[in-house]
Every structure is written in C-alpha cells, then in structure tokens.
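note to self — DONT lose this again. spent like an hour looking for the file last time. sequence + predicted structure for the chain T wanted, 183 res
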Amino acid sequence: MDWIENQGENTMHSQKRRMKQAVCQHCGKAYQTRASAYYEQTGRAKYCSRSCMAAAKHANAIRAVICAHCGKTFETSRSDNPRYCSRSCATSARIGPRNGNWKGGISFDHYHYRLLQKQRYPQRVRAREIAYQAIRSGKLRRLPCEICGAEKTVAHHDDYSHPLSVRWLCSEHHPRSSGNRKK
C-alpha cells in the first residue's frame, strides 16, 4: 500500500498541492494559481483571467508626463515615451540653438551676409541690381538659355562694368560659365 501512496505523489493529487490561493490585482476576486517561482517572477500570478490582465494593462497605460519644452503636464497612453505635449512644442523645441544642425544664426542673418557682399563686391551687386530693375521695368527681357534652350533662366554678367549686357543661362549652365568673367 505504501507503494501506491508514493506513486500518487506524481499524479493529479500532487498538482493540487502545488497550487496556491491568490487575489486578482484588478478585480480583487480570489483564484487558484500555480505556486512556482516562474509564475510569480513573470507576473502571470497577478490576474484571475486574461480579460482582467488586458483591462489592467489598459488602465495602467495612461500616465502623466511633463512636456520637455513647456513644462505642462499631459496624459498619454503611448508606449514610445513621448517628450512633448503637442506637435508645436516638438517643433519649437528644435528651433535655433536647440537644433543639432544650428550654425550660429547665419541662416536668419541674411541681411548681414548681403551687407558683406555689398562691401566686398560693390560692382557685382550694383550690376545685379541694375539688371533686376531693368527686367522689372521691361527694358530687359528674359530669353531662353543660350546653350540648351530652357525657359527658366538667370542673367549672367561676363563683365560687371556693363550691367545690361547679359547672357541668359539656365541653372545648369550658369555655374559652368562663371570662370570666364572679367572682374
């Protein structure tokens, strides 16, 4: 008879002894779960059913986060850890010196750049301004590119001392012809 009792430890009766009583963390209902370290460490022993586990995860998903730009507290359920409360905060947080590509304000200070151009190359700037005014007034008319015939062209000065003597070149051919200019 001892042999039959010992044999019974490896059957269904022994599994009942390895179960433990637990309380669902979501609904508070008592239930039975396996009494193993694996189930306790992985959190499988927290909920009485899959529906309670899903409801608890959804309820725990909404959390309060502080915006990294404006400091306002906002609620989110996203799992990718958003840093900003809105698209406008995210955009304004990356403008100016906070942007990784910031070059010290050169792009916003084009008036300073134009002033330097006027100081360094006054004849060049004057020739461009006169040609631009002549185009606007109708004295000078845009023509197709001299090389390829493209319609969209820019005025090219071979000699800046003659501001109305221009060649019409497209954006592809204009940089190539800049080397043969009289200064």
